[in-house]
Amino acid sequence: MIEIHNIHKSFGGKKVLDGISGVFETGKINLLLGASGTGKSVLLKCIVGLIKPDLGSVTFDGTYFTNNKLDIRQEIRRKIGMLFQGSALFDSMTVEENVDFPLKMLTNMSRKERIERVNFCLKRVGLEGANRKMPSELSGGMKKRVGIARAIAPNCTYLFCDEPNSGLDPQTALKIDELIKEITEEYNITTIIVTHDMNSVIEIGDKIMFLFEGKKLWEGTKDEIMDTDIKELNDFIFANRLMRDAKRIEEEDREEEQEREAEEHARLEKNKPAG
Ligand SMILES: Nc1ncnc2c1ncn2[C@@H]1O[C@H](COP(=O)(O)OP(=O)(O)OP(=O)(O)O)[C@@H](O)[C@H]1O
Predict the structure, then answer these.
(1) CA of residue 45 to ligand 1 center, whole Å
(2) For residue range 162-204, what is the model confidence (pLDDT) as tens digits?
(3) Cα 43 to averaged position of ligand 1 atoms, centre (Å)
(4) Which residue is closest in CA terms to ligand 1's atom 3?
(5) Which intervals hold domain ABC transporter (predicted)?
(6) If residue 161 lies in a helix (H) or strand (E), which one and from where to where?
(7) What is the pLDDT of residues 77-87, one digit of tens each?
(8) Of 41, 100, 168, 254, which shows the fewest CB atoms inside 10 Å?
């Protein structure tokens, strides 16, 4: 579990994060949702320690991270896997070398053990045998898979993904979402995904935190998100026509159900034996 408390961050007098607190649960997909420029990526970077918050703290499974001693921060960092926007593979390295990279940097594994681990991770993301390929030979979806294999290679406890779907067609995006969800549940990882994709919310969002202009305006589950009365959140969700249609259909179904129940009730009342 990751806990953040009262995170503030400004750049040159411009407030980007304004006192954000919350909990990200283990074995769950935790989404940071919000429009462009609302501070999602900055919050993610504050959590992993790439940006130092001006105020506030982050705790990983009870261990204080922000401003803690370097060796403790490094120990936590070793447990973090990152999937960057655009995959960020090393173009001059093969797939195998890309996935092996964090193992070389972060573990004392022998070469044989590392290659076994690389092969295991490639198989897990559906890329068995792609070891010798170069990133330039891969599709966008395959690159994301290599990025996921690289992120989980050192047995990460925490997984951070910055818009893992960007640039993918809807079908491939769904497959990548499902893969991240499966891996999260299988290895009991605390996963945080930055997104503005409502499809991801509906498909895999166990817990959602909605940011607006640097503030947390709402948090809840995907089943609750369609029924809030927060204007900014509704404007965000229903800017998407498919979401408006989904909401309309849900409301029509609910009305039909209520009518059916009322008719059934009236029928039972009518047929009640007198006295
Ligand atoms: N290093 C930085 N220096 C100055 N300003 C920054 C820096 N990083 C981010 N910002 C500003 O902080 C604000 C929030 O940026 P952030 O990247 O977190 O938005 P976002 O919600 O992730 O948007 P998107 O969905 O477009 O990626 C933006 O106005 C951005 O210009």
Answers:
(1) 10
(2) 988 888 888 888 888 898 999 899 999 999 999 888 888 888 8
(3) 9
(4) 11
(5) 2-238
(6) strand 158-162
(7) 989 998 887 76
(8) 254
The CA-atom distances, in angstroms, between 176 and each of 12, 34, 115, 118, 130 are 37, 20, 24, 19, 17
Q: Which residues of 15-42 are buried (b: 16+ CB within 10 A; e: fewer)?
A: ebbbebebebeeebbbbbbbeeebbbbb
pLDDT tens per residue, range 5-42: 999 999 998 999 999 999 999 999 999 999 888 999 99
Alpha-carbon span 204 to 8, nearest angstrom: 28
pLDDT at 218: 94
Is the separation of the CB atoms in 60 and 159 below 8 Å?
no
- In the structure, which protein residues have their CB atom closer than 6 angstroms to any atom of ligand 1? 11, 16, 34, 36-42, 196
- How far is Cα 111 from Cα 115, in angstroms, rounded to an integer? 6
Separation CA 87–CA 82 (nearest Å):
10
| ipTM of the complex in this document | 0.96
Look up residue 67 and give its DSSP letter: T
Distance 272 CA to ligand 1 centre (A): 66
Exposed / middle / buried, residue 59 (Cβ in 10 Å: 0-12, 13-18, 19+): middle
